[in-house]
Amino acid sequence: MASEEELFASVDALLNEEPHLPPPAERARLREAAGITQARLATALKTTTQSVKNWENGRSEPKSPRLDAYQRLLNGWAAKYPAPGAAPAAATAPAAASGEPAASEVKTADAPQAPTVPATGRGRARPATPPAAASRRPAAKKAAQPAADPRFPHGPLAVLDGDGCAYGTGGIVLDCPATTVVELVEWTLRESGLGAPRLHRNGKDSDPLIVLTAAAAVKLGLPERLEGHEQRRSLRLPEGHPVVKQVVKAKWRLTQRGFGPWARIYRKLQGRERQCVQLAVLSWDALDERSWPGVSEMEPADVARVLGVYATRVITPRGSTAVSGLELMTALRPPTRAVRDEASGNWVSAYNPGSLGTEPMDPAPPEATPEHPVVVKSGWTGGFLNEEAYQWARPVDLLSDEECTLPFAVGLDLNTAFLAAAARLVVGLSEPDHFHAPAFNPKIPGSWLVDLSHVEVDPRLPSPFTPDGTRPTGPAWYQTHTVAYAQELGYNVQPLEGYLRRETGAYLDPWHDRLKTAYVDTLADLGVTRDLNDRAFLAAMERHKDVDPAMAAVLAAIKATVKGGIGKLRERPQGRKYKEGERWPALQRPTWRPDIRAAVISKARINMHRKLRNMAAMTGLYPLAVLSDCVVYPSPGESPLDFLPYAASGKPQPGGFRLGPTPGLAKLEGVQSMLWAVDLMEQGYNPARHIKGGDAVLDEGE
Of 129, 302, 375, 582, which residue is least crowded by CB atoms under 10 Å? Predict the structure, then answer.
């Protein structure tokens, strides 16, 4: 029999529920039945037409007070224009009002469809308290969808506050009685209902993530902050700390990273069930401000929303965005799969085709870094690959008088250019083989020693073969895409040496596809959709960060995941105790693959140069500077619409820069005075560095 507390909780939940809008298709039907256009409705609700479109196609939901006004309007239309075959509202209302929900059917205000654990459990879901009594709870947002996996009814993660409330995705709130880290781990695995299903049938389920606020950390016996002389992200609790001792005494383990901002606590696998919980401590800078802008300062429910969207669209965070980007590669291309042993008939683990396998692979000497053991122990002096992003500015003496009279310098930034370069990118899957004087084949991934100094390029453009844009002076090592571009320009190439790979595959394809979808969907949530024309696109991009700070943070994290994940493929040694020639921890990963990183950057740089050439041919315009994926052009106006090439039909000319939300297309990144830029260029100034939001070179890991 239900207790008084449970019955009161059920009643309070009904009283505190936010208005529930009808399905998106019904909203559109009601508006059309009333003869109202989307533009007129947008004017009445003091919003944009695009917002109304998003509400009617299910991409976003209105927020209070606009939510209440929209609900009132829809209710009025529903009374006037009932759906064909629908019962009158007056006839159905009494039946609905007389029903008494069971305790197991209690719904939270933010997530009316979210399932809950049994009401008798210690981790039972509870409804949100009234807004006046709990200012930390935000207004209701989008209703959560039913859980896809019954094993994880409460989503992938929760944010634990000091009062014992664990805020999950979709607005659900769980009671967490834990007062120690050990109790928290056991509650998470046994009662919380947290976790996420695997992303690939040969992969593993994602471990539940518990994010601790500063108050929760102190309640569990952890220090509020980690302090020290080194960067805080590299700090760990000492082995003698009471919390670490409690974990060890309870027969739990910590990874080699110890108990830091991202701590993983686990036990050895027992049967088929993993026993592992990921912890993240907000006050220890677990969420870097560059990758998660403003998230650490949000209320717990909002932090859960941001991380929950990221977990659903990308992966449950397991560390920095760089770490998560690398983990996503492995999750989508698991190294092993189960196969039946012909002799015994048992299922055994075997190599999964298309993956990087389970064993680390040493690179070819020119692909390694100078401190790598294959370089130090072999005494290699033959040079290294230098496939990096552009950092180039055109010399002032190559600016024409006409260019100097243009009033603006406009920056175009390619949307996730390195993600676009990863699409259909064929990389090596096997160890490199050394060849002398090989015939060049653009279909074979690898590193080639070749002289490209004879390739002529317009001096008003950067050289496509070097990051600083200067012309090569002799033989050097290049990745396959760079050498293939020299052939594309019509020049003969004769490699002197090559380190090539026989087994190849599009390893990054699923990684690209998932992140591209996440990026485009998140931009759509911010009002930047594919159906916008160029002028509307620029207007939407100008205000997209102000539409929803939470979703803007998700977008920033997705972009950081791309760059960090690629940079992590060549993570350098960290720490003052490292000695040259020693192996560092990153080398033990199969995903330590500097050749794959070089392939992505090479393709991105070549794609950029190809667009620069096409722009020069179509418009006669040449860039002032290029930094990474940002290019700066002189312009008669402050918009890229003033100089981008368009056909007579109004459509963008193919081959050049095009505006749009898709990875690889461009957006406005900043506007500066052309005369100001030229004056500073004479002092060695690179205008691309100071364009708003200009990206730096790829980070090599965190």
Answer: 582
**pLDDT at residue 101 in the model:** 35
Q: Is 655 left (phi over 0), alpha (psi -120 to 50) or beta?
A: left
Neighbours of 219 (CB within 10 A): 19
What pLDDT, in 10s, does the model give residues 369-421?
999 999 999 999 999 999 999 999 999 899 999 998 898 999 999 999 999 99
Instruction: Count CB atoms within 10 A of the CB of residue 592.
Output: 24
Inter-CA distances, 556 with 290, 295, 415, Å: 8, 11, 12
Decide if pLDDT at 19 tops 50.
Answer: yes
* One-letter amino acid for residue 107 of the chain: K
Q: Which of 88, 24, 100 is nearest to 59 (CA)?
A: 24
Distant-in-sequence, close-in-space partners of 398: CB < 8 Å, separation ≥ 6: 459, 460
Q: 678 CB contacts (<8 Å, ≥6 apart)?
A: 396, 399, 404
Pairing of strands 125-126, 391-393: unpaired
260-288 pLDDT, tens digit each: 999 999 998 766 677 999 999 999 999 99
390 to 95, 473, 580, 694: CA distances (angstroms) = 67, 18, 28, 12
**Cβ neighbours, 10 Å, residue 193:** 24
Question: Look-up: residue for tokens 């299903």?
Answer: 197
| Number of other CB atoms surrounding residue 338 within 10 Å | 12
Using 50, 70 and 90 to split pLDDT, how confident is the model at 140?
Answer: very low
State how far the alpha carbon of 555 is from the alpha carbons of 90, 372, 521, 526, 561, in Å.
45, 35, 9, 9, 10
* Residue 361, CA atoms < 13 Å, CB-side half-sphere: 21
Is residue 42 within 8 Å of 56, Cβ to Cβ?
no
The one-letter amino acid at 14:
L
